[in-house]
Records
---
Amino acid sequence: MKRILVTVALLLVLCLVLPAFGCDSESQPETAADFYKGKTINVIVNSSAGGSTDCTARVLGSYLERDTGASVVFTTRKGAGGLEGVNYVYTSEPDGLTLGAVSGLKFMLNKIMDEPAAVYELEEFSYLTEIGARLSHFMVAPDGPYQSVADLQAGEDMILGGGSPAGTVCLGSMSVIELLDLDAQVVTGIDEEADRALAVKRGEIVGYTAQIANTQTNIDSGLIEPMFVLGTERDPLMPDVPAITEIISIAGEDLELVELWEDVLVSSSLFVAPPGVPEDRLAFLHGLIAEWIQDEAFRAEIDLISGCEEESYNVGDAVAEKMLNLADDLEYFKDLFLEMIEKYRL
Amino acid sequence: MLEAYASALEILFQPVNLLVLLVAVISGLIIGVIPGLSGLIAIPLLLPFIFRMPQDVALILVIALPAVVVTGGSISAILLNVPGTGANAATCLDGYPMTQRGEGARAIGASVTSSMFGGVVPVFFALAMVPLVMPLILAFGQPEMAALVLLGIAFMGALTTGSVTKGILSGMLGLLLSFVGYQSITGIHRFSYGSTFLWDGFELIPVVMGLFGLSEMLYLAMRGRSSIVQGRLAARFSDVLEGAKDVWWHKWLWFRSAVIGYIIGVIPGIGAEIAIWVCYGQAKQTSKYPEKFGTGVVEGVIAPEAANNGKEAGALLTTMALGIPGSAVMVILLAAFMMVGVTPGPSMMEEHLPLALMLLLGIALANIVGGVICFLAAPLLARVASIHLDFIFTVVMIMILAGIIAATVSPLNFIVVLAFGLLGLLMKIYGYSRPALFLGFVLGAMFESYSLLSVKIYGSFFFARPIPLALFAVIIIVLALPYIRGAVSRIKRRSKGV
């Protein structure tokens, strides 16, 4: 009996002491790598399923699962032109378990155009990475009446195409009118890329701006072809297509506009986390992304989505710096684009 | 060419590929049956795995799955009045009354046979159609699209079984509801009251689930029914065969509907939502007993089901042959193709002809396998109609909830389902037309966009072009046909009386 009591007493002591040892081990700071193990990471995608941002997110997600031990769940929140998803991520718990995969262009343009429903601030987000920097090209029909800038400048009462009035395509087309001083206006509301390409082929619109990766199949099908790049240098994807500055002389504010399209308003897939995510978790994720970028298999998968050898990868601070610079110039670009919408919208 | 066919068949009939096709077909059917789920949700889930699959396996998987989704969607439309996809909404009109009469097995037999051949036959003339596709697409500019959508709206009258005034009022309410949200041509927000939830208007899935599924369940519960079926339940295999025979008896209706669906599918931007209503409307207008439509007429099942599968085949052909995606699902399909290193378009048909043929034959085979599975399962499925309504109500509510969670992420959509469920219930009780409201809702914003773009691009007389004028003539005939028939029968009666 005495032995039993001693054994029970010993067991009780062990029960009290062992957790204390456990506490000791728990009191050691938990690493970010440990934090993610067995957890669920929610990736919010703010653009259409099957688009380049969605596909890129799914590739990143599979590597995230492999290297963190967490499960990754994707949710598409593309409502309100993608704002629903960005707002959701911005206001999420900053624990590093909610990440956003957003279209870089929409993300920036919503702030440039001061969209009231965009509740986020560019300088406050936690930035993980930005993949891709696709330039805007001006597309025309391969067999249409406008084969050169001179043809465009000689044209009268032309109609260019756009999607949403404050969207990339519309503002790109308006920028072309402004830079080339065309007698043209932009019809808004042709929302899908394929519809715009078909409208060009039918002769309903003269042209519009698009990124090669988004419209490669339409080029292959002979619906459209790029006339020039909205930038100061050629696009490595289309080395035969001249930059707009090669065709006409551009200086002053017009050059700033071209540089905006070349340096800032490039189509990319942006990966963000809510403001206030613990530094160690952000650093851990940055480290993983930096490793993947060096991984040939990862890059090969991204290349397949991009339709070319993707060279533009920015991680962490580089993305944040770009957004900070843009945040400083928001008012200037907003006034510029609002003036263009007023002048050139049909 | 024969060598290319042989090579395509050799790839397709490899055991692994056949197994993948079977898995994809079964998944596609299940996804179709559950309202709210569609290829739009399923294919993105496959994208991360596609990279690591052999090219032919990945392509068979992504092409076979969406090919049969609408076939599966017709089953819940017929048995529960809950369309699995928006493209099955018209099937509810006569499929569900057939189920109530105890003829669910026959309705499924007709639907599956119509769907199967609607998906298989176009594949065999797809290659011959390739040279015609581009001119057809280019012929349909903004004015032509506006006229085509207007033709769909004109069939609103054909969906009205009772009072014409109530039918028109229902359609007008639908049109009004379609105007909620952001209008990208004018850049104006309408009736959204600053809410990002209403920015894109009401989503289709919650509307269709509430209007048809929830309202029907509430109506049955109010009436104190114990099961859906009100007559003798006919759920033997011979009853399913009866449905297949119905398709044979109405083969010209089936053919017309499949061709209309196929042509509409080929044209990007025009969805199955127009194809099904146009085909349902023409089936009613050309019927010898149009007044019986909506009460459980098998032609009302055959026409929309031939149309929606024909539409899928047309959209797939446009995506593959031209690289121009005809719908949101096709955009994802295009991405999947590119992920495995295949760029759809003319070059695919030239450089990868065996692969293109393999995919076309894969679509046909998926439709056949899907059809056979549904055909065999139909007698069992039809017995759902005799299960006690308590269970059915629970199952339908779970399906609606699951569909909403999967298809939309906003909890506010539960309120939309409830609101449209109550609206649908009131409409049913007071004899207003739910299909007319749904048609107005689906086509209203589309017509507004195409007509506004037409005015901006072509001016006020945008309709003065051959195709819109021809379509307007069809619209006039469609609207006048019941009156012409009435006049002819009066003349006949008078002459007999004399």
Note: Residues 18-26 of chain A have pLDDT under 50 and may be disordered.
---
Amino acid sequence: MILGDSHQRVSAWVVVVCAILSIVIASCSTTDRSASQTGQSSPTAVRPARFRAAADPADPPGDANAPAAGAKKGKELFATLGCAGCHVVNGQGGTAGPDLSNEAAKGRSRSWLATKIRNPKADNPQTIMPANSNLSDQQVGNLVDYLLSLTATGGQTGTTAARSTVGRPTASTVSSSIAVGGTRWSQRCGQCHNLRPPSEYDDGRWAVAMHHMRVRVPLTGEEQKDILAFLQASN
Amino acid sequence: MEWGKRIYAAPGPQGRCAAGLRVGGSIIVLALSVCAWGAADPNQKGNYVSRQEYEALKKELNDVKAQLSTPGQALPAQDQTCQEMARTRPVAESLGLTDTRLLITGSAAAGYFDPEGQSSTFTAEFNPMLLWQLNERLFFEGELELGLEGPEENGEGSETEVELDLAHLTYLLHDYALAGAGKFSVPFTAYHNHLDPSWINKLPGDPLVYADGGIAPDTGVGAFVTGAVPYRNALFSYAVFLTNGPALITDDPESAGSLNFDNFNDLNNNKALGFRVGFLPFPELEVGYSFEFSRPNPPGFETVHSTLHGVDLNYVAHLAAIKGQLTARGAWIWSDLSDVTYDPTGDLGFGPLFFDNDRNGGYAEVAYRPIDVSERILRNFELVLRYDRLDIPSDAPGGGTREQWTPGIDYWITARTLLKVAYTFDSSGPDADMFALQFATGF
């Protein structure tokens, strides 16, 4: 049977719609599977924050007697690890990842945050956030202390942390080339395209890729070095 | 019951024979087993080691442990490798080989395009890119464009299209400047330099002003200097380029008066000179202004001056208020060519043709991706809408105003792989409307 143009067009549309539905269904099934895992008691499962507000045996150690001290150490770690490259805290930082100024108010538990820091892909396989499996329990605990000490209105609980102006990072707002590089990575690279996960390239390949981007964008020499430092520290 | 009968029943002649065979077989198997045990490794005396062997192994293990735990003391083989590396490294450094790094990257796409008034077709393209860092300052970048060229109306002429898209060498002068030469992406507005790879472009096709028949240059052969300079919290970028320039089409009745930007030879010993300056008042926003001047007339034709201007904008922000990322991009380009008469003698069959050769065009694109919503499936979708416009003088071949509206939906499978679905409404008429589906990836 010979089909007319209209039949051919309908057939083509059916093929296209089926292809799209297949991809969506495949994604949904992955999502559903992950979602169903969140309700199980698997040690790697991450349950919704509202169900995990209470203390958990798996909670990372913090400075229970001196949470402010732990938060202070966590703030330093947050800067030196380059977390600000992707995360806004109190209006400052990169935008590749979610704003972390309000984690306590969102009901995040210590274990949820610790899992997210150590293995970000546990609940989101597509995330570009690098794993931090090399951090000690104490360091993760300090980072959690810091994140939970932040308030929704900006600043840290019990501190006088100022809300900085949004803009290009300066030496006074970030403490290392890696941290500055992280911010610049999310801002400059993210201006044109999605960010390639740092783990995709080794140090040498990132050096070549950043040289290429310096030719294309263009970047200053300092920006190139900072972003490269961040990528090589995160891959 | 049957089993018991067989065991306790008196055997007949055949039964006796079978029993004999079973006994004989058992003896043979037993003998073979004994022989195999005897033929085993004479050094392996059972599953046990002697006290002497145990002590020797223990001593050997302790020696290895001590050697590994002593700082600076390497195993003999490791030490030999280190010595070899120390010996060869100066030689490699003197040859400039230690900093040489190669990276193959690029993009690929497969598409399905269904114009209302024409046959639908599948397409494929592949753009491998070779990046070669010769040392800290020297850098080579080459890119091929491999595509499929459709057939002529008679059905003949389909072929694989291979083009040298980029091939240039750059040298870092200092933190704020680099110079390059070769075939490069002309920095006239930001689109071709930043946004046109298929995995970055959010819709299946290029905007009208940058597509075939557009009014903006894409690549050129020549030299350029580019860089960026910070100023307080802002950043300025710049690029200056000198190329062989475009060619004015004078003898084609369907496109006379337009510029061919795929021309790579200097037609009249006059180079095209241009620049772009960009300004980033804050990291999320970049605005730019571009300019190019050239003399594109072919030899023997009246002198023609071409002036191109372009402005572009790129804004990408992660906004908590809308739980996602908002992208707004656009450009407007206007060109002015000297007003001359084409085919003045009428020998080519379409002249004399005279018109005011000012051409304008641009695009505006907005996209929204809800990356902050809790449903992961929604986070992977991105909604896109683009408006295109191209104004060509009404007296010129193919003249008139053309507008397009293209809504689309992208699904991001990974950070650099996406599926795009779009439908273009074209002001040229319903037959120009087109459905497009494209699967694109950057690698």
Note: The helical segments of chain A are 5-38, 67-80, 110-118, 137-149, 177-188, 203-216, 221-234.
